[in-house]
Amino acid sequence: MDLKKYRAMAEKLVAEMTLEEAAGQLTYQAPAIGRLGVPAYNWWNEALHGVARAGTATVFPQAIALAASFDPAMLETVADAIAAEGRAKYNAFAAEDDRTIYKGLTYWSPNVNIFRDPRWGRGQETYGEDPYLTAELGKAFVRGLQGKGEHYKAVACAKHFAVHSGPEALRHEFDAAASPKDMAETYLYAFEQLVRAGVGGVMGAYNRLNGEPCCAHTFLQKKLREWGFEGYFTSDCWAIADFHEHHKVTRTAPESAALALKNGCDLNCGNVYLQLLIALQEGLVTEEEIRRACVHLMTIRYALGMGQRTEYDAIGYGEVESKAHLRLARTAAEKAAVLLENDGILPLGKKFGGTIAVIGPAAASESALYGNYCGTGSACVTLLEGVRKEFPSAHILYAKGSHLFKDADEDVAAEGDKRSEAVICAKQADVVLLCVGLDATMEGEEGCAPNFGVSGDKKDLNLPPCQMRLVEAVLAVGKPTVVVQTSGSSIVTGAEGRANAVLQAWYPGERGGEAIARILSGRAEAGGRLPVTFYKSCDDLPAFTDYSMQNRTYTNYAGEPLYAFGHGLSYTSFRICDAVLKRRSLRVTVENIGRRSGETVLQVCRKIENPLAERNGRLVGFQRVALKKGEKKCVKVPLSPDWLRLVGEDGGAAAWNGLMTLTVSDGGNAEPFVLRCMVADGEEGEKK
What we know:
Layout: H1 4-16, H2 19-24, E1 29-30, E2 41-42, H3 63-68, H4 72-95, H5 131-146, E3 157-161, E4 175-176, H6 180-187, H7 189-196, E5 201-204, E6 208-209, E7 212-213, H8 218-226, E8 232-234, H9 241-247, H10 253-262, H11 276-281, H12 287-304, H13 323-336, E9 338-342, E10 355-359, H14 367-370, H15 383-390, E11 395-399, H16 419-428, E12 431-437, H17 465-477, E13 481-486, E14 501-504, H18 512-521, H19 553-556, E15 574-581, E16 585-592, E17 598-608, E18 618-627, E19 632-638, E20 658-665, E21 673-680, E22 683-687
Parallel strand pairs: 3-5, 4-6, 5-8, 10-11, 10-12, 12-13, 13-14
Antiparallel strand pairs: 1-2, 6-7, 9-14, 15-16, 16-19, 17-18, 17-20, 20-21, 21-22
Helix pairs in contact: 1-12, 4-5, 4-13, 5-7, 13-18, 15-18, 16-17
């Protein structure tokens, strides 16, 4: 969007404000200025996977699940639906003069931090561990949320800028040390792409980066200017108070306010900017700096339609949890689910008429559908409810089996009080659906997930011991068993290589139970691929506080993963027949050689024989493709604009010559197709 018109309107408005009025607009709870026709506005709102914390709204699959779809077009459609519900709620709230928190149109999403360590509780909010995948999905979310009209439909905000991914318990005082190469290659890549794509907002991180707090960081602000950022910059909530309370880079609140304002932070989510006039009196800031920040904020408000008629005014409350949005939530959950293992037991078939034992603490849990930063779904379908509906001819038995994390499920009960019931049900069953995993009380944000005192992060990758014991007891029965896992991250259940099938459901949203049941029956297919590496343990990973990319993520991990990045099985089989390099794309011929129609995700990985290159290569292209039984298709797979680029130790592009290998795979059983070509001075040459 071209903001010039709205910036001119903002400059005129701010010039008419008193200095006190302008300064008052720089906190997230901006008061009304009646004489100028400026209504009160609360900037704080969330829309990670649906309008959050503002009552009823469609709960789509969690962000990490949406990432597993490898489908930017679908993500754009989801974000457009979120924006429609957001506008519907905003229009209705404004009519009631309710302008409080979570009622505005500035959404602090998406989270495009890199999920570098599987212990990070907030990794579920991200699009995974790969910078290119994160950037492509993040741009799609921004396009969908902000719309293509004369005004913003809503405003997206890329967070948390930058080099932020735990530990949660240390975030208020932590100093992340990152090399120029790692920043350019990994941590800043998606932010640059979203800024260049026109994201309206950027949020600073809590931590310091190489000594400077991210909400007042000279290098990061310089990068935003280089990339052409024209939106607003906000602190994370109460992050500016951390300057003097925890980081100790300032002594007083006025000093902290001045440091942030002078270094590009327009909006304070918190109350430190209430000290700006004191900072002005102390000579720490200027009137011009206060008014400049206010202009940035008013530009966004005008672009949203403040004081004007907009093309979105007629969006009614009927958009909230509409039938179309609920269908989209189900489709998204189907495309997100990843079939990790399958010996042929799946699909069961819609007409399955035997006894199904549905076991586990995730089976009847709505919490297992949600993930963090969610709205309230009024049409939730749990895994158990989905199975009951999908298999009307089957006899369904249910046993909770264990608490989510406590040794006993009931108060004043013996350890493992629900385990024997699970074993009894398993013995009666023809097929066992073992539903285990985590929820947002066990992995999430500091202060929001009270999981064993680690502030939202995981101490290891194992299920809680009570669930591990349940898995062992049920597998010992020896019945055909399908494990359905709910989590926002890499987990180890103890069923790997032992169950007949393993299905990663993530936090699949309010229609997740329906989607998973349709996958189990075969009416739908698990369409996802892993956007993160699943590890066997975290014992051979670097320390959580180590931000170097050495031995991190699929690009540089030296060990053997449990399930690799990009992995995912289908109910049909594919063959990659040919691939031809066409400068900025590959023309890939793929054939469905299986017994049913299906979708796959073509993934192009680049590997360069050069000490500056990633150990294991890097994703440079991907494309979903749907094929009918027996169909062969030539598919264009776009490549990243910098697919030939090598990053030097100084963070700049490095000239190179040598052999490059491009491997095309589908993450499943298809034999990868390999191309090799010589590169001279960063330009492709002879291919073979």
